[in-house]
From TrEMBL:
It is found in: Cytoplasm. Keywords: Cytoplasm, GTP-binding, Initiation factor, Nucleotide-binding, Protein biosynthesis. Residues 55-225 are annotated as: Disordered. This is Translation initiation factor IF-2. Its main location: cytoplasm. Residues 76-124 have a biased composition (Low complexity). Residues 309-479 form the Tr-type G domain. Coiled coil: none annotated. CDD domains: IF2_eIF5B, IF2_mtIF2_II, mtIF2_IVc. The gene is infB. One of its GO terms (molecular function) is GTPase activity. Residues 65-75, 125-172 have a biased composition (Polar residues). Belongs to the TRAFAC class translation factor GTPase superfamily. Classic translation factor GTPase family. IF-2 subfamily.
Length: 809
């Protein structure tokens, strides 16, 4: 029989030792103090008393392990089988005692009662004998457990161990075992009593705890709805983002045919595939290079929120003396001064006028297409509308056509102002007729081009012209967001002795303010002062407003773009890095298309169209050449004639070619001095010809990559033959000494004897001692053989040369 000390028993039933001693005294059991040992019958007596409160459940508790074997049959096998079997059969008494204790903790009285005694029948005798002891002991425990919420049972069963363990030193390790078992999934809280009515009820109440315990399926994190990444992710990074095991992802990749490791870098496609499989949305965050100012312009374009209508920016173009300046002045004088009394017009490169209905129009006041194209060549897309001035008494002239082509190349809508209508010789119909030939068909004749008859001198028709400008811009839906930080372009800039760098900026989006940290081209600074086109100091300038600013560290160029940054530090960093980048770029200037690099550019997919400017001595030839050239099409690349004309190649042709990445073809004409210089500066390829079919052939060959490279010979060194050796199968080896430059293995050679070239061919072998040499430099000895030449003699000079490709002119 198990012995137990008074204090242990008292602890089990949650009473004081004193109380138990008193009870024992009442029961006539002699004990001296709390350390006294209680015999089995004494324990039973006590149980008899305390059991009345905790009562019968203990029986059940004890019976439970037994019952498990029996009840296993009716229980869901997974739950009960494992535990009872191990408990009842393998465990000595001590163990089984503790088990019920822990089990009983989790089980309320009602449940345990229903456990039939028959359960014990299935137990081996030895076990069942030990059970009663455990029953009695565990009963009080059961009593305790009643008061505990079921959810606590598992946790509490462990702390219970020491208390049970104190029953005897022997039992301690055993106890541990028992509790280990209990702690197993499906342990205590999965009572075999499921099939018992009372317990089933109880079980249901405990419902939520039961399924949580068994073979704990890893609780998976909820999948995010969306993840973002920049450039790529490794498997482990992706796994963290979506909260799944890397192994799971690797498996998925494997199933997709991609072998990967945990650190494998996944590209966009792989990330998207995996995420699609999980139903997670993916977004790639594009890293923005803030030193690339164009990025700010691109992002502004695709951002329609907060956009408001902005005034159009207009450039006036046309032939010399057709009235551009007069028109600009006329508009300015009537509109600007009228609107702003007392304003003194300031020529800052652009001005803004207010039209009757309060709408504004900005004019770039450098007339002509040179400025327009220069700006475009630098990447600035400033102009929204072009007014093409054509004098009604003169008609379409060469520069009119140039202007049309410049505007077309920039894809800017054209409004034709038929000027000098006040003149008696004015013939607007002739202008209309002539322009039709250049693709500008008047609305009156069923075309789409707006023609406005005006007189820049008298001001007639100017209101109508401005109205038309607004109409065209309305169609174009010109928008900007005045709330954002300003971006725009430089109209003109210069160094002022007093003010330093002065630049006229056209705000294209956002609002520019005094104090703004700004990067302009490769310069940077803070906007120190702003002056508008009326010479007035202003604090801010909204979209399409031209202002002159000071505060830059250097003078930018017309056409440079500007961007305002949040803070000066960033502006400085960007400005400085752009300046150093510009230096590097200057060295490796982006190659303009030339016939020599055309094929490479086509291969790299950089070219969709080959832009050509055709200039010839007579118009007829121009047309013939243009139409033949347009028929050429190689590998999906078309020829596009962007401008033609009779006469010399001018600077304007070069600037258009530079802005449009075009080649200039001159037939029986030459570039003038300025054009030559400009072409050299801008790297524009000019091809001069005298025979038409040669022109066509050259372009076609260039597009096919068939242009034969031109070579010139370059002597790289010389060697003197000091000794010769005849070797069978090899030939004559010339033991030589390099006297000049070097000899290279792949160089061509000439054999010179008494100043006469007696043989020209290639080196066969070149050796330093026994080793093959790629090169042998001056002052070294070498052994060489020459292909197909064995008559080499002592004293011969071997001259080495290479063929160098020369740039075509
Ligand atoms: N009668 C008349 N003369 C005009 C009109 N517009 C301009 N002119 C005259 O034409 C001449 C040339 O005018 P500009 O405005 O200088 O012409 P432009 O196109 O600016 O010339 P460039 O600056 O040389 O390219 C001047 O003498 C003007 O007075 C007009 O509507 N009617």
């Amino acid at each position: 029989m198990t012995k137990i000390r008074v204090h242990e028993y008292a602890k089990q039933i949650d009473k004081s030792s004193k109380e138990v001693i008193e009870q024992l005294t009442k029961l006539n059991v002699e004990v001296t103090n709390h350390m006294s040992t209680l015999e089995g019958d004494a324990v039973q007596k006590l149980d008899g008393i305390y059991k009345k409160t905790a009562g019968q459940p203990n029986k059940v508790v004890q019976a439970k392990p037994q019952a498990q074997t029996t009840s296993n049959q009716s229980k869901p096998s997974g739950q009960s089988q494992s535990r009872p079997a191990s408990q009842s059969q393998s465990r000595p008494t001590g163990q089984s005692q503790s088990r019920p204790a822990s089990q009983s903790q989790s089980r309320p009285t009602g449940q345990s009662q229903s456990r039939p005694a028959s359960q014990s029948q299935s137990r081996p005798t030895g076990q069942s004998q030990s059970r009663p002891a455990s029953q009695t002991q565990s009963r009080p425990t059961t009593g305790q457990s009643q008061s505990r919420p079921s959810g606590q049972n598992q946790g509490q069963s462990k702390p219970a161990t020491p208390s049970t363990a104190t029953q005897g030193t022997n039992s301690q390790p055993k106890e541990k075992k028992v509790f280990t078992n209990n702690a197993r999934p499906g342990g205590n809280s999965r009572p075999g009593g499921q099939n018992r009515p009372g317990q089933r009820f109880q079980k249901r109440r405990k419902g939520p705890t039961t399924p949580v315990q068994p073979p704990v399926p890893r609780k998976e994190r909820e999948l995010p709805a969306k993840i973002t990444f920049t450039e790529s992710l490794t498997v482990i990074e992706l796994s963290k983002k979506i909260g799944r095991e890397p192994a799971e992802i690797i498996k998925k990749l494997f199933l997709l045919g991609v072998m990967s490791t945990i650190n494998q870098v996944l590209d966009k496609d792989a990330i998207e595939l995996i995420c699609a499989d999980y139903g997670v949305e993916v977004e790639e965050e594009i890293k923005i290079d803030i030193t690339d100012l164009d990025v700010f312009f691109e992002s502004a374009e695709g951002n329609p929120e907060d956009s408001e209508e902005r005034p159009p920016v207009v450039t006036i173009m046309g032939h010399v003396d057709h009235g551009k300046t007069t028109l600009l002045d006329s508009i300015r004088n009537t509109k600007v001064t009228a609107g702003e009394a007392g304003g003194i017009t300031q020529h800052i490169g652009a001005y803004q006028v207010v039209v009757e209905n309060g709408k504004k129009i900005t004019f770039l006041d450098t007339p002509g297409h040179a400025a327009f194209t220069t700006m475009r060549a630098r990447g600035a897309k400033v102009t929204d509308v072009t007014i093409l001035v054509v004098a009604a008494d003169d008609g379409v002239m060469p520069q009119t056509v140039e202007a049309i082509n410049h505007a077309k190349a920039a894809e800017v809508p054209i409004i034709v102002a038929v000027n000098k209508m006040d003149k008696p010789s004015a013939n607007p119909d002739k202008v209309m007729q002539e322009l039709t030939e250049h693709g500008l068909v008047s609305e009156a004749w069923g075309g789409e081009t707006i023609f406005v008859p005006i007189s820049a001198l008298t001001g007639d028709g100017i209101d109508n012209l401005l109205e038309m400008v607004l109409l065209v811009s309305e169609v174009a839906e010109l928008k900007a967001n005045p709330k954002r930080l300003a971006i725009g372009s430089v109209i003109e800039a210069q160094l002022d002795k007093g003010k330093g760098s002065v630049a006229t900026l056209l705000v294209q989006d956002g609002t520019l303010r005094v104090g703004d940290p700004i990067v302009v081209g490769h310069s940077f600074g803070r906007v120190r002062a702003m002056i508008n086109d009326l010479g007035r100091r202003v604090k801010e300038a909204g979209p399409s407003t031209p202002v002159e600013i000071t505060g830059l560290n250097e003078v930018p160029k017309a056409g440079d773009r500007f961007v305002v940054f949040e803070d000066e530090k960033t502006a400085r960093q960007v400005g400085e890095s752009r300046a150093s980048e510009a230096q590097v770029n200057q060295r490796s200037e982006k190659t303009r298309v030339t016939l020599d690099n055309l094929f490479d550019q086509m291969k790299q997919g950089e070219m969709k169209e080959l832009n050509i400017i055709v200039k010839a001595d007579v118009q007829g030839t121009v047309e013939a050449m243009a139409s033949s050239l347009m028929k050429i099409e190689v590998e999906g690349v078309n020829v596009r004639i962007i401008h033609t004309g009779a006469g010399a190649i001018t600077e304007s042709d070069i600037s258009l070619a530079a802005a449009s990445n075009a080649i200039v073809i001159g037939f029986n004409v030459r570039p003038d001095l300025n054009a030559k210089r400009a072409a050299e500066e801008d790297g524009v390829d000019i091809r001069l010809h005298k025979i038409i079919y040669k022109v066509i052939e050259e372009i076609e060959f260039a597009m096919k990559g068939l242009l034969d490279p031109e070579y010139q010979e370059k002597i790289i060194g010389q060697a003197e033959v000091r000794e010769t050796f005849k070797v069978s199968k090899v030939g004559t080896i010339a033991g030589s000494y390099v006297t000049e430059g070097k000899l290279a293995r792949d160089s061509g050679v000439r054999v010179i004897r008494d100043s006469i070239v007696i043989f020209e061919g290639e080196l066969d072998t070149l050796k330093r001692f026994k080793d093959d040499a790629k090169e042998v430099a001056k002052g070294y000895e070498c052994g060489l053989t020459i292909k197909n030449f064995n008559e080499i003699k002592e004293g011969d000079i071997v001259e080495a040369f290479i063929m160098e490709e020369i740039k075509r002119k």
